[in-house]
């Protein structure tokens, strides 16, 4: 998640006659309609799901190089790319490029904090009203709301569960 994947489709290929190999065609479903489209070699191409949400961008060069850059926070299936290589002398072969995106827990950000006077030293935020078991990578679980951290001399650091924000 959030990290580009790069490689070379020809990295494990060779020609028995020693002819140079090149990628001649790449097919991938770019818009989630279930139909493979021809990818323009060397051109970054956006891949989206059926609802139009961006999955990421795929670039494949005729030299076999490829880069897939996932959309921010995307975790899920990536359309399989089918490709054909040629030795320029009539020999061809086909294969597929399959990319798996592994989700990672993102750092949570707290916004909407305001200043104000509070007596005392260390403060504690009681999150008892928040739902149990929330997962920052799950699109199905969320809690909305706000809270205020007030310190008379300003906030030097905010630590949540051992992490300084």
Automatic annotation (TrEMBL):
<feature type="region of interest" description="Disordered">
    <location>
        <begin position="118"/>
        <end position="142"/>
    </location>
</feature>
<dbReference type="Pfam" id="PF17963">
    <property type="entry name" value="Big_9"/>
</dbReference>
<protein>
    <submittedName>
        <fullName>Cadherin-like domain-containing protein</fullName>
    </submittedName>
</protein>
